[in-house]
Amino acid sequence: MDFLEKIGKFLEKLQNWPEQRKKFVLLTIVVVLAVVMGAVWIKNSADRLSGMGRVANSIKLPDFNLPEMPSLDILQTTTPTNGE
Q1: Do residues 14 and 25 lie in contact, with contact meaning Cβ atoms separated by under 8 Å?
Q2: Dihedral, 33, 38, 39, 41 alpha carbons, nearest 10
Q3: pLDDT tens, position by position, for the chain (84 residues)?
Q4: CA 14, CA 19: separation in Å to the nearest integer?
Q5: CA–CA gap between residue 52 and residue 20 (Å, rounded)
């Protein structure tokens, strides 16, 4: 008996099961697939994010030699009072 025949016999047997059992099998398959796909998605996302970190660390930005600017002492200016 080859693989396709086994699948055919299983499907025939499955058709004769009660509705509640069929729903349980379907729900179990969906949950297992969701967990597997979620784990793969999380692993793939973590790998991509760590790869982006390595790329960002390897980027060398040019050095700018800017002249030193005089500081503005805005906070030390006097504030107007209420007529006093």
Answers
A1: yes
A2: 120
A3: 799 999 999 889 989 999 999 999 999 999 999 999 999 999 999 888 888 877 777 778 777 787 887 777 666 655 566 655
A4: 10
A5: 47
Token couple for 49 = 């994010």
The tokens for 73 are 């002492």
Give the Cα separation of 72 and 30 in Å (integer). Answer: 65
37 in Cβ contact with 29 (< 8 Å): no
Tell me how far apart the alpha carbons of residues 23 and 17 are, in angstroms, rounded to a whole number: 10
Segments in the chain forming alpha helices (H): 3-15, 19-58
- In whole angstroms, give the CA distance from residue 38 to residue 46: 12
pTM: 0.53
